[in-house]
Amino acid sequence: MIQRIQSVFLLLLALSMLSVVFLPIWSKTDPLSNQEVVLTATKLAFTKGQGPTTNTWPIAALAVAAAAVAVFEIFQFRNRIRQHQIGVFNLLLIMSTIGAGFYYSSIGERLLNIKVPGTFEAGFYLPTLALLLNVLANRFIRRDEKLVRSMDRLR
C-alpha cells in the first residue's frame, strides 16, 4: 500500500494540507502605525488585538477534509477506479481551500486601508503543492489501471 508511489504522494498531500492549519496564510503590515493583520486557517486578526477578529474556520475545515480524504484514498488501493474518483473529489476540496484563502485575504486587504499589498505566506502555497501531488497521484493511479487492463487482455 505505501510502497506504491501514488500512496507516497497522497501521504505528502495529507501532511501538506494539515500543515495549512498551523501555518500563517497571509499577512499585511502598515509601515506607519505598525499594525499587522495575519490570516491563519482559523482566524483573521490584528496581531496586537487592535481591531475586529474574523473567524476563518472554512479554510481549516476544507484543509482537514482534504487531508482526511487523501488518507482514505490511500486505503482504497484495491479499487483503483474508486481511488481515482476520490482523487477528483479531493481536487475540488483543495481548490476550495485555495479559493477560501483568496477570499479571506481580500477581506484582510480591506481591514488596513493602505496602498502596501499583503504577502502570501507558506500556508498559502502548501495547497498548491497538494494540488500538484494530487494530480501526480491520479496520474499514477490511471497508469496502474491501464497496466492491469492490459494484463487482463493478454490472458
What features would you describe in this structure?
InterPro entries: DUF4293 (IPR025635). This is DUF4293 family protein. With 155 residues, the protein is of the alpha+beta class. It has one domain: Butyryl-CoA Dehydrogenase, subunit A, domain 3. The protein is built from 4 helices and 5 strands, in the order αββββααβα. It has a 5-stranded antiparallel sheet. The protein is elongated. The model has no long low-confidence stretch (mean pLDDT 90).
Instruction: List the total number of helices.
Output: 4
CATH T-level topology: Butyryl-CoA Dehydrogenase, subunit A, domain 3
N-to-C terminal Cα separation, in Å? 25 Å
Strand content: 5-15%
Largest sheet: 5 strands, antiparallel
Q: Class in CATH?
A: Mainly Alpha
Keywords: Membrane, Transmembrane, Transmembrane helix
Protein name: DUF4293 family protein
Pfam families: DUF4293
Transmembrane segments: 7-26, 56-75, 87-104, 124-141
